[in-house]
Design brief:
Blueprint: H1 2-20, H2 22-40, H3 45-61, H4 63-68, H5 84-119, H6 133-163
């Protein structure tokens, strides 16, 4: 159990930290696009398209890191006042009823979406027309990494129920 938790947490931490550097690339592209459009009146197709693709890539690949670092929205009116054991029970129920079914359907839909995109070697509809099938693949990868992190968080919840203590990695 500890090995699986550590492995998944380490993987998603490394990915999350590596992705953080892409923000700087995105910043430069958006800055270039804004200056080009506002000051020179020459917007670029590639700047807009690349910026939304990079932002989507960051968003999709960052799901799991956000879950690991407790950055997702959480309604904790009762949760924060509960003991670790009760928090673990609430987490287990939440993961079984909401998280894993959502991930199942997300993985299923993103798999079909990705396969179709690769089958037709899909490209953007713009005049720049970059390939979008690698970009769409990140949706599937993001859901898979989120699934792995969900397993890690589920195991941490089991640990809380068993020991009555928070899991410390």
């Amino acid at each position: 159990m500890n090995t699986a938790i550590r492995w998944i947490d380490t993987l998603n931490t490394l990915i999350g930290k590596a992705l953080s550097f892409i923000v700087y690339i995105l910043l430069v592209i958006v800055l270039y696009e804004v200056v080009s459009r506002k000051f020179f009146g020459t917007p670029t197709i590639w700047g807009f398209e690349l910026s939304y693709m990079l932002y989507g890539f960051l968003f999709m690949m960052g799901y799991a890191y956000a879950l690991k670092s407790k950055s997702h929205v959480n309604i904790d009116i009762f949760y924060s006042r509960a003991t670790p054991r009760k928090q673990g029970i609430l987490d287990i129920i939440g993961y079984l009823i909401f998280f894993f079914p959502f991930i199942y359907f997300g993985l299923k839909a993103s798999y079909q979406f990705t396969i179709q995109s690769w089958q037709i070697m899909e490209h953007s509809q713009s005049t720049w027309a970059p390939p979008v099938y690698p970009y769409k693949t990140t949706l599937l990868i993001g859901f898979f990494l989120l699934f792995l992190q969900g397993i890690s968080e589920f195991l941490k919840a089991i640990y809380k129920v068993k020991t009555g203590e928070m899991y410390e990695s």
